């Protein structure tokens, strides 16, 4: 036993090799996920740094942004709008279309509209808002159909006021189920029966509406519209709508969003050229009932010349081929006002079926009347 050495304490062991690279990797991934949660990527470049799937995979994993709390005025407005939209419209035994004409004075195409309306009494009503001078009527369908009118200034809220004035008068007739806004330069492209069936047998309104990131779209937005109208919700479109009765009612009931555009969408405000009639109605319906509108107007206008104003038609322009081409268009095209000039092309769907987009057309000079009267029976049979 003398030769046996007794060892005290623990037996020494070789030091462990720590997986440092694993610890570092876990820390980096944890930090990335924390940053992604706190500061989620908004731009397209950030989205595609790690995966070709982009933001979608990350956004599916991350919790949704908390909903903004509505103001008292928003809450009240949305309750009323929701209630109107959810209430089935009253059925009419004699449903009619209200044709609402917004004009400075006399209507140069009354004779053409007279031909359009003939034989369809009891299926339409006519309302005329003449902002400058009392119109002289030549058609029996227009006599005594002038409403109380007020001055209209292009680009200002008075244009919206005139539209709402027309709607208010037309809504007094419970048989009016669809409402069409027309200018003094508008002409019909189809027969009355075609127009009536097109509008009455669908459950949407034809409100022009698209997202334009350029200077003549979202560049006109004012942050004074916050919190009710955010920049991402700002839309643009032509003012010439056709609208079902429920939409006409919620437009008349609205004061909250209307007041935002009345106060903060006007030419010259903050150095911008905001045009209320190009933005209020498209933005309003895009926010409160986006699925209830088509995103194009049923009234054709030609912007192909890319000028401040659309193309206007002279007498020499009016041919059978021109009208046939207009009535055969079955896609809507919007062009953004930014440097990209991106074309947004969508098929015109009527109850899910692709059909021609336009029922009316505008920007015709009065001198075209005789040719249009001569061609009316032919081009409206397309």
TrEMBL record:
The chain crosses the membrane at residues 20-39. Its main location: membrane. It is a single-pass type II membrane protein. Keywords: Glycoprotein, Glycosyltransferase, Membrane, Transferase, Transmembrane, Transmembrane helix. The keyword Transmembrane applies. It comes from the Eukaryota. InterPro entries: BC10-like, Glyco_trans_14. This is Glycosyltransferase BC10 isoform X2. It comes from Rhodamnia argentea.
